[in-house]
Design a protein that fits this description.
single chain; alpha/beta; six-stranded mixed beta sheet; 58% helix; 9% strand; disordered N terminus; CHAT_dom; CHAT domain-containing protein; membrane; TPR-like_helical_dom_sf; transmembrane
């Protein structure tokens, strides 16, 4: 066995007590290697426990390093992927911590880093895979080992292809092909990955390797000649089986590709057979006449591809959902191993497509049965991967707030902050092409990831009983308490699904996402790109706003003053307040029937976040940050008016002009319940992250993630604070989302470039109403209505461009008028009783006088 040569210091197979520790570790490793069974592995684990607690010298650490490498290899072979990763990670971290490279020339790339990178890729941990592969490419370059550089390039290119980063993969391949003396098979592999990337980018495939069946397969696939593609793919599979050493996983993946081609040709039986073959390879003991038991599955991306395809070819909706549920289960196994937000985002993107397939099936079922249980089930699928990373982050911060002195939670939080900081440094180092620093930061990130993974099961086990008990069954009760109607949208590839829920009624509808609907949404968002677009064609705008109102099925809502909207996809960029409920010919904005006149509108990112939210508390303790940028081309002239309004209605402290520094703000913000930032902001570009400006520096989106904020409310009185890269399922990665990640539950922010004067007027109205109603949601609604009714504002400035930009994300409260009416009613009843008593007394007195 190739790993046996690692044991170089054996003297005899005497008892453990007659050997030193270093030799004992080597003996235990060699004994296991001569007979790798579950029984011998259990014995190795017992001995490992004894060894670890007694390790002292660097030679003992080297011996233990070899044990871990062999352990990782064995676990990988028996499909214990996550345990195998843990073994390799521990080996790599120990290798670096104890500087084992100084006492051995062992090929750490070949026997540790390459298998670790491949394992990360198998379970979809693309971020850690990228870090490890880049690390061993750097080491190979330092050692001038072209063979390992090429191997690294192949693995990195394949990783980028799997992750959908096709241009990155092509760059890696083109750089690798410049190396000299590349073996023909390696060159063919690089060319085939490049061909697949070009295919994905809809670009013409160019290659000199006309005999390579992988290239021919890709070319036929690009031409949608599926029969020819199938012939070439069969040749690829035949070649794989003919190799002396082949990967069972690679064979299984190619059977899945075969199945995909058969499905395109509508050969459903052949598709099913190929998928059964793939399952048999991954689960040799599986009975192919039924679906595998969920507990037999393990973290492996190929399973997800298999069950997703099986779901598509089922005749029964129930069977299809069973297949998709197995994909979701494997996905969760994988997701539990991921620590970086980037890997999770990519993983959740795929889950969203599967969620849509499940919603399609359940919508069909609902049309036939009309059962509320079907709606609840559909809502669970829609919710499962909606804002998943945000929900996880909020959960972690909530747990830390409940147990602020728990050392495990404190350590986890500090590691998450460190992970964010290292990621920011890595992005900069890669941009500047500082390869040595990239390698160093990648090593640090991998170490942090390992520590987070080791902490997770301990924390989960400790707080398993502390998990929030809120579920969809409690939703009607909460909606009744809040006197609210909730509308959740699921923005898919083919349809927008709409859930409309009150305490006693639920509906489940879908909107066909055709060109007409897409254009309606896009055109409506475009109205708010410029201050004059609406004013230049008011009647066209009112028509479009009313059409979209109906398209989004808001005309079906009849009850409750409070309306909670959970948008999705491009609907995140729409201010629903500005939609119009009835056709109108008026050009007087004050008289237009905007939706805000009918409802007190609150937004949220998820049903579960709404369920877990507590009743908002009133507070008027405000830290106002106003850089103003006086005497510059960025000066905010009306920002001073805004500050004066806040000062008039609240208990506020202000950081003005030069005092409005980033460091000062976050030092002082903990002493205030409300943070009000009146400044400039930018939604960012493809290469530059979103940022918000302070007097001394910019605060970038990635930096906000690492903040720990407990403020009741953050008001982002600046441009485009709700605009950012739209990630399917997770939403808009905006500045506002950054503050949500930081722990803020109530946010007021903007959806486009806001006007300085109108913003100051809206904020004046907001704080004035806020101290009266003690409700953010009511104050945000009333501030806009007051603005529309203000006779001192000219009609052109009452365009929704000026007043509807600011949206409130949080929880609603009962309308203030309810309380007011109770007091009025109580006063009237008291007066009536008093008047009646007065009449009775007077009548008696008059009777006596008579």
């Amino acid at each position: 066995m190739k790993y046996s040569f690692l044991v170089i210091l054996l003297f005899s197979f005497t008892t453990l007590f007659s050997q030193n520790l270093e030799e004992a570790i080597y003996v235990a490793t060699e004994t296991f290697n001569t007979n790798r069974t579950s029984k011998s592995y259990d014995l190795l684990l017992k001995k490992e426990t004894e060894f670890v607690s007694n390790l002292n010298t660097i030679d003992e650490q080297l011996a233990y390093f070899f044990l871990l490498i062999n352990k990782g290899h064995y676990l990988d072979n028996i499909n214990k992927k996550t345990q195998s990763i843990t073994a390799y990670e521990t080996a790599w971290n120990n290798y670096n911590q104890f500087k084992l490279n100084e006492i051995t020339d062992y090929d750490v790339i070949e026997y540790c880093l390459k298998p670790l990178g491949i394992l990360y890729n198998k379970i979809g941990d693309f971020t850690n895979a990228e870090h490890i592969i880049k690390q061993y490419i750097y080491l190979a370059e330092q050692n001038k080992n072209n063979s390992q550089r090429i191997a690294g390039a192949i693995n990195l290119a394949q990783l980028y292809y799997t992750a959908g980063r096709f241009n990155n993969a092509i760059l890696v391949i083109e750089k690798a092909l410049e190396l000299k003396n590349i073996p023909l098979k390696k060159q063919e592999l690089l060319e085939s990955i490049k061909a697949n990337c070009l295919l994905a980018l809809n670009k013409k495939i160019t290659s000199n390797q006309t005999t390579n069946p992988k290239i021919k397969y890709a070319e036929a696939l690009q031409k949608e000649d599926y029969k020819t593609a199938l012939l070439h793919l069969r040749q690829v599979i035949t070649n794989l089986y003919a190799q002396d050493k082949f990967s069972a996983r690679d064979i299984a993946k190619h059977h899945v590709l075969n199945a995909q081609l058969h499905l395109k040709l509508n050969h459903k039986n052949a598709c099913a057979l190929e998928l059964k073959n793939a399952l048999k390879i991954l689960l040799p003991n599986h009975d192919n006449n039924k679906l595998p038991d969920i507990l037999d599955l393990y973290p492996e991306n190929t399973f997800i591809d298999i069950f997703d395809l099986l779901g598509q070819i089922q005749l029964s909706n129930t069977n299809a959902l069973d297949c998709y549920d197995r994909s979701f289960y494997v996905s969760k196994l994988i997701n539990d191993q991921l620590t970086s937000p980037e890997s999770k985002l990519l993983h959740n993107y795929k889950n969203r497509n599967r969620s849509e397939a499940c919603l399609d099936l359940l919508y069909e079922e609902y049309q036939i049965l009309k059962q509320n249980t079907t709606i609840t089930k559909a809502l669970q699928y829609a919710e499962r991967y909606k804002s998943a990373i945000l929900k996880e982050t909020v959960s972690k911060k909530s747990l830390l707030n409940l147990h602020p002195k728990d050392s495990l939670l404190i350590k986890e939080n500090s590691l998450l902050i460190k992970q964010t900081e290292l990621t920011n440094q890595l992005i900069k180092a890669e941009f500047l092409k500082q390869s040595e620093l990239v390698s160093k930061l990648s090593l640090s990130l991998n170490k942090v990831s390992t520590q987070l993974k080791n902490l997770k099961p301990i924390i989960d086990n400790k707080y398993s009983t502390s998990v929030n008990q809120n579920s969809f069954e409690t939703l009607p009760k909460k909606l009744k308490k809040d006197k609210a109607t909730l509308v959740q949208y699921f923005y898919g590839n083919n349809h927008i699904y709409v859930f409309t829920l009150t305490h006693n009624k639920s509906t489940f509808n879908k909107i066909k996402l055709d060109r007409n609907t897409t254009n309606q949404i896009a055109n409506y968002i475009d109205y708010f790109n410029d201050a004059n677009r609406i004013n230049n064609k008011i009647n066209t705008y009112t028509t479009d706003a009313n059409k979209l109102y109906k398209t989004l099925l808001l005309d079906k809502i009849k009850s409750n003053k409070n309306l909670i909207i959970i948008p999705d996809g491009f609907l995140n960029f729409i201010a629903f307040e500005s939609l119009i409920t009835q056709p109108t010919n008026t050009t007087n904005y004050s008289n237009i029937p905007f939706l805000i006149k009918d409802f007190n509108i609150t937004y949220n990112t998820s049903v579960m976040l709404y369920l877990e939210s507590s009743k908002p508390k009133f507070t008027n303790s405000v830290l106002g940050v106003f850089p103003v940028f006086k005497n510059s081309n960025k000066e905010l002239n009306y920002s001073i008016n805004e500050a004066e309004s806040i000062d008039k209605y609240t208990d506020a402290k202000f950081l003005m002009y030069n005092d409005a520094k980033m460091h000062t703000t976050f030092n002082e913000v903990k002493d205030f319940s409300i943070l009000h930032l009146s400044t400039h902001a930018n939604a960012g570009t493809f290469s530059t992250p979103a940022y918000i400006e302070f007097n001394d520096k910019n605060l970038y989106l990635n930096e906000i993630y690492s903040k720990q904020l407990n403020n009741q409310l953050v008001v982002l009185s600046a441009c485009e604070t709700g605009i950012g890269q739209l990630i399917k399922g997770e939403g808009s990665l905006s500045l506002a989302r950054g503050f949500q990640y930081a722990g803020v539950n109530q946010l007021l922010f903007s959806l486009w470039k806001v006007n300085d004067l109108s913003t100051s007027q809206i904020m004046h109205n907001f704080y004035k109403t806020y101290v009266k109603s003690k409700s953010v949601s009511i104050a945000n609604t009333q501030s806009k209505i007051d603005y529309l009714q203000d006779k001192t504002i000219v009609n052109a400035k009452k365009s929704p461009y000026y007043w509807s930009a600011f949206v409130y994300y949080g929880s609603p409260t009962k309308h203030a008028n309810n309380t007011y009416l109770k007091y009025v009613l109580f006063t009237l009843i008291t007066l009536s009783i008093g008047l009646l008593l007065w009449k009775i007394i007077r009548k008696k007195l008059n009777g006596r006088q008579a």
